[in-house]
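Weekly sync notes, structure subgroup
Attendees: PM, AL, DS (notes)

Item 1: joint prediction request from the bench team. They want all two components modeled as one assembly rather than separately. Inputs as received:
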Amino acid sequence: MIILDNISKSFNDMHAVKNISLTVNTGEIFGIVGPNGAGKTTTIKLITGLLTPDEGKILIGKYDIVREPIKAKAILGYVPDKAFLYEKLTAREFLIFISAIYGIPQSEALSRTDEMLELFGIKDVEDELIESFSQGMRQRLLFASALIHRPEALLIDEPFMGLDPFGVRMLKGIIKDLSSKGVTIFLATHSLHIAEELCHRVGFINKGSVISVKTKEEISGVKGGLEGLFMEIGG
Amino acid sequence: MLALLLKPRLLSLKNSVSTKVVLRRLPFILIGIGFWILFYIGTYKVLSYVRGIEFFGEILSRKLFSMTFFSLLGFLILSSIITAISYFYLSKDIPLFLSKPVEIRDISRLKTFDSFINSSWMALSFMPPVFIAYGISYGAAAGYYLLVLGCFLLFSLITAGIGITTAHMLTRLFPAKRTRNVLLGIGVMLFLMLYFLVKGLIPYDISTPDGFINSIMSFKTESPMLPSYWVTEAVSPVLKKSGFSIFYLIILLSNALFFLLLSEIAGLRFYRKNIERIQPSGERVGRGIWGGYYPGINTAMFYKDIKTFFRDTGQWSQVIIIGALIMIYVYNFKSIPVNALSGFSFIKEIMVLVNLVLSGLVLSAVSARFIYASVSLEGQAFWIIRTSPVDMRKFLWAKFLYGFIPVTALMLVLVFLTNLAMNAKGVLMYLSLGTVVVLCVSVSGLGTGLGAIYPKFKYENIASVSMSLGGMAFMLIAFSIVIATLSFEAWIFYVYSLKGAVDLSAKIQIGLSVIMIILINAVAFYIPMRIGKRKLQEQGGII
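Output from the run, pasted for the record:
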């Protein structure tokens, strides 16, 4: 579903991402972990089309994100690590706006908006301006907006930022449910225990290169689990 | 401590200045220098004319100097209040400072510095041509330039002190976001009251030289209680080389210190409590009659922008100010003694042209505020657009329409009313309205495009986008397009009136002028929109 074919990206002659090749299958939850500044966010920004790779090719489904960005973005959902939203819209208006730019018909958009507001527990604040939302509420709204068009692939940068334990539990359930329904999930995180619990495979990235990819089974066979492996590979 | 708190700003400035940045901004800098030169030449010519008037020349010259500072006094105080509210109470770095072991006194001093710089930089950068014109006209020595600069800085510090003190008091009475609007409302009312008061004070007939001189002299700007008077009294003797009196310089200095101290006392007294009162709380918004409306894929951006605009009080309060200024504009045209001037040939046509030039100035200023800033208005939420299946061409068109529709409606009403006030009907009216539509298309395209080429997504206050170097450059380019278009139109009119469209030379000149009008406006619209679309597609680093 998501194919990264030898992609590289530099900023001022510094490699942020270097020759990454990866394939994430349909319905798979793929986690990417690594130290700060390793290239996780840059990789996700390249997949979303926010950045253009200097070399290589990125396919979302059958669409190249550089050559057919509109078609590729239409089947992609993205949750960034920083929740900048339209502060002067209400949660409901924001979801309706997102539905409209994804071309969802009115009747469906309204029912999906209600469904998302309920699912993420923000129905009671649907008519409040986003500017008054806490970090956790913003994160819930971000997820709702990333899922309202029913994407085939979901990219998440630090998924549990600002969420309370109820929110974390709820979100883990939603991610597993999406995966079981065939949605491909690519997540970047520092929460190793969550990556270990959720991901079918985990990639280790350092200095812009993916240095190792391990399956859930391989990770569970290592002493200390993902954390032990992280320290071993990272060290 | 203030030096320490200022260090991040200085380091940010140092880190953001590079050869690349300077080269990128070079066109804007050159446009600014060009404007300075033009402003200097204009001021010098007016001053030479005024000084040449027999007997009254020197008195008028001094009067114009004091009137300049008198106008600046009101402008800078109002600007300081609005800026102080933004920097003291709405800045994003406030929570950081409050969570660190930093004294309120030091935060207050830092914000005083910020408010002073940001409220007065525009006046500081526009005034030098006026001072230089005076200096050269009078053949003043180097001491004059140092003195006038020093007096202007002290004058700006006085207005900053008054503005900051008022901002603290007003925020004590109202929450910051409401204060800004209450204030803008008060500002507009004061401005209108002052205007009509002045209008009532001056003799109505300004069509004769005597009437004109009487009108200028009747402006009550010379109260010894006003800082503008102190500046005039301090500078005038040095300008005219008739000595130097330190008295008014000391008055300026002591008042600057007094008002800064007063603003610090007000800050120490109210700041901490005021900050606690303005913390955001849940605000439920009624869905209203449009609650059930669902925008289509092409209208979604427009729908979102309109909703945001009407909820952002900082935005619509500026509409009130523009409305008030336009009211004054129309009122002024109504006051023009067209009948007294009816003896001159083509006076109506000339007045219509002058009206179009002035409307063009209004169009440039309004577009800088609302159209040039429209792409930046997305702020850091621009990632939403970039990751959605939205074609940047459609996005830019939505931004274009968001600005073009209201600005065109406003300009059409403005020109229609002013033409009616001057009794300009028929062909002149149709030609004016047609010109306005053409200019609105090109200036809106230019504003949307340039705004996309130089977006400022990380802004402290949306007004800072239009007041940036890019915003000022846009305004000057837009006004140049207005002038170029109107010059060709005037040329067509001149050739047609003089020769008629009979001989070949006249036909060629008219044809070439029409082509030039179309070309200038098409290029102004198309090129920036095209480059803007490409630049937005490349935007990645800001998100």
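Discussion: The interface with chain B takes residues 45, 48-52, 69-71, 73-74, 76, 78, 80, 82, 84-90, 93, 96-98, 100-103, 106, 109-110, 125, 127-129, 131-132, 145 of chain A (CB under 8 Å).
Action: AL to compare against the crosslinking data before next sync.
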